[in-house]
Amino acid sequence: xxxxxxxxxxxxxxxxxxxxxxxxxxxxxxxxxxxxxxxxxxxxxxxxxxxxxxxxxxxxxxxxxxxxxxxxxxxxxxxxxxxxxxxxxxxxxxxxxxxxxxxxxxxxxxxxxxxxxxxxxxxxxxxxxxxxxxxxxxxxxxxxxxxxxxxxxxxxxxxxxxxxxxxxxxxxxxxxxxxxxxxxxxxxxxxxxxxxxxxxxxxxxxxxxxxxxxxxxxxxxxxxxxxxxxxxxxxxxxxxxxxxxxxxxxxxxxxxxxxxxxxxxxxxxxxxxxxxxxxxxxxxxxxxxxxxxxxxxxxxxxxxxxxxxxxxxxxxxxxxxxxxxxx
Length: 327
Fold this sequence. Notes:
Blueprint: H1 11-30, E1 32-35, E2 48-51, E3 59-60, E4 74-79, E5 85-88, E6 94-95, H2 100-111, E7 122-124, H3 127-131, E8 148-150, H4 151-159, H5 164-175, H6 178-191, E9 210-211, H7 213-223, H8 227-233, E10 237-240, E11 244-247, E12 258-266, E13 270-281, E14 284-295, H9 301-326
Antiparallel strand pairs: 1-2, 1-3, 4-5, 4-14, 6-9, 7-8, 10-11, 12-13, 13-14
């Protein structure tokens, strides 16, 4: 039975209207053109929006590119509960460096779920994980061969200081070898619809691990639904027995409202950043999630990461201010 203009809205219809309003607020702030509709109807495939004035848009919602988008690399942004995804830059596969560890953690938590506060099984650090400490200038954590660490502790050492040797240890623990684990990563990416992503290792040291901002955004949105993952990536520092204090590599956590997610930088990758920020839209708090990739590529990892952090901070502040006004 259809509703008359004077009938109270059904719960489902009321939710669609609310979601559509949030979607309109987002695209207005972003200054974008929309593919499909906010609730996923009327279009084939995922809802994606691109900046107004760029090629590919069908339905202009706003007349100008109002958001302070990064001018370098590629970006994707979504406001949870609103539907569309905003993108900027050519969405082509590029090296993602340590953003790879988000998929590593996602697969580990899918295969070995943890409840909030639960340490999980004890995992022994092997000789290889200990030997890799400080080898080749990689980002590593000083694991001691034969010492046992909880799954939660290893996830903290994976995501907070970005330990490459921890990533490979977790891969061997789960699958017996990094190669077998990488196959699990690829299958997980396929399930998430990440059609332009290739995973060849657990740590991201390999330049052959590539993805796009829109693919990484899909992963980030899924990973942030896991309360253990979300708690870890929002942690600034923690002390691990036998290791000592470890500090988060993500300086964006100093920005009000930011609750994660992960940095990644190398010379071929440039600076990459997955971020999540709580924003007020009207009388509700929503999660704004973004992926900023390939900033200042082929310079230095430090220069690339600074560019990724600075451009992400500007984008977050611009979007948050606009969403507050729209709300």
